[in-house]
Amino acid sequence: MNRTLWIGSVMIGTVLIMILFGPYLPLVDGSMDRTLVLRDSDGTLLAPPIPPSDDFLIGTDRKGVDLWSKVIIGARETFYILVVIVAVRIVAALLISIGAFYLKSLRFLMNLWNSFFSFMPTIFIICILLAIPGVMFSDHRSFWVLVIISAVEVGRLAMVFYENLQQQRKQTYMEAAITNGGSRWTLFKNYYWPSLVRELAITTPMEAGRAMILLVQLGVIGIYVNQQFFSQMDRSYRAVETSDSWPVLLSNLQQDIYSAQWIPIAALVAMTFSIIGFYLLAEGLKKLQARKVRREI
Amino acid sequence: MIKTISLRTAVWLFSFVILVLLLLIPMDTVFEEGRGGSFMGATYDYQIQNHVANIQSFFTYIYETGGLGTDEAGRPIMDQVTSVFLRSMLIFMPAILIGFFVGIAKGIFDFNVRKTQAKFIGQPATIGFLSVPDIAIIIFIQLMVLLLQSYGLVEIDLFGHDKIDNVLMNILYLSIYPVMFIANITFKTLETEQGLDYIRTARSKGTGELKILYRHMLKNGLPKILAYSNTMVLYTLSNLFIVEVFTEYRGAAFYMYHTLGSSTNFYVGALVSPNIISQIGYIFMFTLVILAFNIVSGVARSAISPLEDER
């Protein structure tokens, strides 16, 4: 029995239920009303953030919104961002790797791209690219942030697919296929593509986990996908996150650690849960494939 | 070996030039102000001649000052960059070293206990630590420290850069990933080595288990472990960035974030004075560190299989 696959699927299934039926789940307040002040049983006034209590299962955030509802409803937006990042990465990496497999010039470009990124840590390069004014004040900033977050890892992923294709080429039965007169297209359709699909099944959840870790890291240093600039008192402007996605709950991390630990804990638990779910799913699928190959032999 | 080194240096130069070009992109942003100077929006148009002018003035600046020049207060920027950078290295280098030594030790431990009752604190624990985001572990540690503090058991300063507490805590945060990464690689290396013929020969000749492990398996596996050091260094530098920004440890990554920091706030009419010269200084230092580790891992990799040198 493949226990890893089961546990992983159950974890990701839980997240899926949150995404699909979020507002209808028990104890979820779909309207996300703000509680401004609350009187506790002794009659003292409580201002948000309100710690976990009978009214609020895991407390409220700094605006007084019930955190449990916020986390569950925020799942949809978080995963929307995640799906876009992973999809862009995979499609781009597939195109690049297949191109590099057949064309020498593209192979050179891919290696150059990879070497460039191997000299700059991911977070550095994201910060540098986001600070370019053309990106910062663009009307489609969210779009560019997504593109940048996806692009910095495309090279590495393309390399994974490329290695997979090379591995496939080395198989002895490929020689048979070639001597039998298989055209380039037939070879691709019948051998290379299926091998890529097997790789994809494992890589996709893996990438989702990685992208989520990146979102956590970016959340901690105050970079989010949806940002709007709002006026501060001193004529300065601060980017304010307007969405409900999980990384946003980390925006006040330094203060929350002292005064409202339940906010970052809720966000981190939700994100770590899905990351581990993705990794277990990938591990489980790897086991499943290994078992299948053994049976076929 | 010389080929490996020169190739990697060339790639480093290429990456550095691209990064400098990115940093020198002109900041010609036109702010649209509403009533009372409120922010309505900003338009940006990129003009190639401004970019070229920026690059030219940068090189004349470097040429004329013969270094990085001085800031408004007359202090040489070079000294600031190096002192701040050394502060970063003060937490980064120990973390990497701990990663290697403790990581290999943990890997050997994982390997030794893999078939005993204690295996759950071995390999599975390593994998677990690798998959949880570091920041979750860091926050867990901080919450623990705060809890202990509330009972008056410990007294640790969590934020800042000038106390020994900050340095030690940051080394702890930074070393989590390298330790687990190296432990995982060591474990995998030992696992593949153990079935090999020469091990069986050594065993049949009556060599002690410990001697086999250290003299043979580990010695042969070391290049493989070193070859992966590049990935680890890159990831740890990313972590350095987050740890410094989060704990307000004023090292190079912290200053880089805050001078680039226009990504989260700005003033109308003026982009936060982009301290481009020192940013380029930091980038130079960081990429140099990466180059050093890159060469180490490249040499180690070509020691494993000389044919793979081309990549």
TrEMBL record, chain A:
Residues passing through the membrane, by range: 5-25, 79-103, 115-137, 143-162, 208-225, 262-282
Organism: Bhargavaea ginsengi
Pfam families: BPD_transp_1 (PF00528)
Domain of life: Bacteria
Subcellular location: Membrane
A GO cellular component annotation in the UniProt record: membrane
Positions of the ABC transmembrane type-1 domain: 97-295
Major subcellular location class: membrane
InterPro entries associated with the record: MetI-like, MetI-like_sf
Membrane topology of this protein: Multi-pass membrane protein
Membrane among keywords: yes
Database matches in SUPFAM superfamilies: MetI-like (SSF161098)
Keyword Cytoplasm among UniProt keywords: no
Name recorded for this polypeptide: Peptide/nickel transport system permease protein
BP terms from Gene Ontology: transmembrane transport
Keyword terms: Membrane, Transmembrane, Transmembrane helix, Transport
Coiled coil location: none
Automatic annotation (TrEMBL), chain B:
Keyword Flavoprotein: no
Residues spanning the membrane: 7-25, 84-105, 126-147, 167-187, 225-246, 266-293
Coiled-coil features, chain-numbered ranges: none
Residue ranges annotated for the ABC transmembrane type-1 domain, each copy included: 85-289
Keyword check for Transmembrane: yes
Primary localization: membrane
Localization of this protein: Cell membrane
InterPro entries xref list: MetI-like (IPR000515), MetI-like_sf (IPR035906)
UniProt cross-references to Pfam families, sorted A to Z: BPD_transp_1 (PF00528)
Entry membrane topology: Multi-pass membrane protein
Keywords: Cell membrane, Membrane, Transmembrane, Transmembrane helix, Transport
Family statement drawn from the similarity comment of this UniProt entry: Belongs to the binding-protein-dependent transport system permease family.
Protein name: Binding-protein-dependent transport system inner membrane component
